[in-house]
Amino acid sequence: IRDRISALNAKWNEAFGVEDIFMKFGVKRRVRERDQFEGDKIYDVYAGIYSMADVVSNERFSDLSGGRYSIDAFPDYYKASAFGKDNADGFTLNESRTRESSAPNTYTADEEVDSLYAMMNWDIGKFRSVIGWRHERTSVSFRANEVLKGTDVESEDRVLVGYTEADDLGGVVEPVYLATNPRVGESTYGNDFPNAHFRYKWTEWLTLIGSFTNTIERPDYESVVPYRRIDHEDKDISC
Questions:
Q1: With contact defined as beta carbons under 8 Å apart, do 41 and 100 qualify?
Q2: Angle value at C-alpha 12, between 10 and 18, nearest 5 degrees
Q3: What is the pTM of this model?
Q4: Model confidence over 33-53: pLDDT tens digits?
Q5: What is the pLDDT of residue 218?
Q6: Residue 212 and residue 195 in contact, taking contact as beta carbons nearer than 8 Å
Q7: Rounded to 10 degrees, what is the CA torsion of 138, 143, 147, 152?
């Protein structure tokens, strides 16, 4: 994640020739970028014998919840990782599941926010007021990937390239990976944020304060990149 901020501010004392008034003006630019890379690989076939005995942990937990439960055997993460590295040639890469997992989670999201503001402060005896206004222009863009799963019927005898297998009736059992398409997009929007704050010092022990502000919540990086998952089995699309 990279986050860069630049700003310029100015102050006008005795604004409009009034000693009790000062004004502030400023501009600000913020640029945020995030590069997300998912490089996990998924394997599902091992040309050999692989059981928990190869990676079982030496730890034992025999006194859980006051002695009512115990854990005597469970896999050790570090042993499993070492086993995978030492026997990498024996595993078969599942390209379909690997691409389905890694491609959609690899993206770049950028956000640029340009803003300007003006504020007036006025003190009159026991009364003080601060009135301001800020305008923001936000530009967001993304570069991501779309994973396609489906079928490609090559001939009349239903040769299905995009599926792992077909059932006895010629129907499709499981769709598999076909291709990864790059996707880009951008959008721009503006917002105005007026604000007002008032304070009256009634006595040495009592001060009345009133204020009005307006803000927005910006989306997370994950929300900047469009998301759509297709469930072929249930024929459902979630976004």
A1: no
A2: 165
A3: 0.66
A4: 989 888 888 887 888 888 888
A5: 82
A6: yes
A7: 110
List the Cα angle 38/40/42 in 5-degree steps.
140
Q: Would you mind telling me the total number of residues written for the chain in this entry?
A: 239
Q: Is 80 helix (H, G, I), strand (E, B) or coil?
A: helix
* 218: DSSP letter: P
| b/e sequence 81-90, b meaning 16+ C-beta within 10 Å | eebbeeeeee
- Amino acid found at 54: D
List, in sequence order, every beta strand (DSSP E) within the chain: 2-13, 21-36, 43-46, 61-64, 69-71, 91-93, 107-124, 127-150, 176-201, 207-212, 229-231, 236-238
The label of the residue with tokens 């105005």 reads 192
Phi, psi dihedrals of residue 106, rounded to the nearest 5°: -110, 115
Express as a percent the part of the chain with pLDDT over 90: 31
